[in-house]
From TrEMBL, chains A, B:
DNA-binding region, residue intervals: 28-47
Pfam family of the protein (one): TetR_N
Record-annotated HTH tetR-type domain positions: 5-65
Keywords linked to the UniProt accession: DNA-binding, Repressor, Transcription, Transcription regulation
Keyword Cell membrane recorded: no
Name under which the protein is recorded: HTH-type transcriptional regulator, tetR family
InterPro entries to which the protein is assigned, alphabetical: BetI_C (IPR039538), DNA-bd_HTH_TetR-type_CS (IPR023772), Homeodomain-like_sf (IPR009057), HTH-type_TetR-like_transc_reg (IPR050109), HTH_TetR (IPR001647), Tet_transcr_reg_TetR-rel_C_sf (IPR036271)
One GO MF term: DNA-binding transcription factor activity
Amino acid sequence: MVDAHARRTELAEAVWRIVVRDGLEQASVRNVAREAGLSMGSLRHYFTTQSELLGFALRLVGERIEERIRAVDTTGDQRAVVRSMIDEMLPLDRPRRGECEVWLAFTARAVVEPTMAGLRKEIDERLTDAFAAMIRRLADAGALRPGLDQKVEAERLYALVDGVILHALLRPGRTSNATAKATVGAHLDQIAPAAADER
Amino acid sequence: MVDAHARRTELAEAVWRIVVRDGLEQASVRNVAREAGLSMGSLRHYFTTQSELLGFALRLVGERIEERIRAVDTTGDQRAVVRSMIDEMLPLDRPRRGECEVWLAFTARAVVEPTMAGLRKEIDERLTDAFAAMIRRLADAGALRPGLDQKVEAERLYALVDGVILHALLRPGRTSNATAKATVGAHLDQIAPAAADER
């Protein structure tokens, strides 16, 4: 008996390969079936439309990232904890770069494609919540700079991280990884200065 | 006699319409000729490859933005000047939204398409310079918060603005414009606090 979850994961991975190699437009049900070595009939057992297929592939990216974030050790300096959580989102190695490429291909298409509005909104809300939780974590630890608006800071950190991901994707290589980490680091130092830096 | 520059601009606009409506993959020389109501032969008088066509269309987006930035009144409070310059990049109305959509479609494709590496690098360098000039403007006016690294701050502002553009594209509407402006505003207030806020 084939494990349905394992099969769906294999299919999502076939979608990722096509998106990264050929662009999102090529991730049709037919092409994904071919990439995964399945008949159209077998694939339709798991997904009936392209939207379902893309939605599943993208949610799986989100779940992997969320799983890694949940695995971050949350003891100790909360600035370091938030930094580690954000590192799990950045394209610092090949697997994370693949996730970010799928996310960007989806995002660029979702901006102009009305049928993707629901999924786009769902992902935006999950990420908004994730960044709000990071800011709250800093605030609860007394590490957030006094006078900052938590809602604005959550949105600002979220926008900054998306911009850093975009730049890291555009400039592959080790220098780019260092820039990505330095940019996020400078931001966290500003919104949550270490005690010795406070004035 | 047809004005070559005007004709090239018309063609770039045909590219933009296709990219926004159908995705970057559809902006082939053939489809652009059809969209512009020209024969393939006439179009080849101006552009011989799809890369040339895309490059020209994207550079024209950049030139329009740079032109508007140059037109910003640079007298008075330099924080307000920088804010006005950044407003010219944000998708706050229909024309600017179209520019940003073209930029995003290109960016998403350029990340995985090696033939776009040259153009990608050129645009990244121009934008890096533009943001470095804004930070220098704040520093020269004595408005930049002491102790900040200008190079890091230029990259941080650039990443933040790209993230804000991405979010504004993903969440169309007036609320989203207000969020975009508030996020950039909060960032500028942090890196260049008004005199009364300095401590």
